[in-house]
Amino acid sequence: MTSPGGQEVGRVSIRVVPDTSKFRRTLERDLKKIQKSMRVEIPVDLDMKGIRTQIAAIRRMLESMRGANIPVHLDDRVTENMRRITSQARTLNGAVAGLGNQFKRFGRVARSATDDVRIRMMLLGGVLRRAFTTNPFRTLGRSITATGRGI
Q1: Labelling 45: which of 10, 38, 138, 145 has CA 20 to 30 A away?
Q2: Total domains, the chain
């Protein structure tokens, strides 16, 4: 078969896909360069009289609400979360109070153990003092005499 480009023997199809792997980074970089290089000046003409009037109206409205009771309706989820937080706070408060009692008990036990060690050290000191201030041979002689009488 003949076509305007010549004789057709078969068909070939080539799929062309653009490489977009670096597109985003390149676009962001280029946009930042454009942003830095451009400068725009916008003149602003404020109606200060209108702004002052609006601020005064807002002030009057707020002052009229002073001491007012405003009913607030909370979503059920908020109410349930507040109940849960309150319950956890009470539990935590009880745990902290219990921990305080445990520390008091520990203090009493530690004080008692310290007093016991102090008393034992004083007794041991007296025994050691006697052992080093008396003549050990005299005591040994008494022991031998007492043993000999028993024979």
Answers
A1: 38
A2: 1
Written as one string, the DSSP assignment of 37-61 is: H----------HHHHHHHHHHHHHH
Structure tokens belonging to residue 99: 């921990």
Record the tokens describing residue 124, joined without a space. 């041991």
Q: Is residue 148 a part of any domain in this protein?
A: yes
Residue 94 lies in a domain: no
What 32-39 contacts at long range (C-beta under 8 Å, 24+ apart), as own/partner pairs, is none
Asked whether residue 57 is domain-assigned, the answer is no
125 falls within a domain: yes
Does the predicted TM-score (pTM) go above 0.85? Answer: no
End-to-end CA distance of the chain: 146
pLDDT digits (tens, 9 = 90+) for 66-84: 887 777 777 788 888 888 8
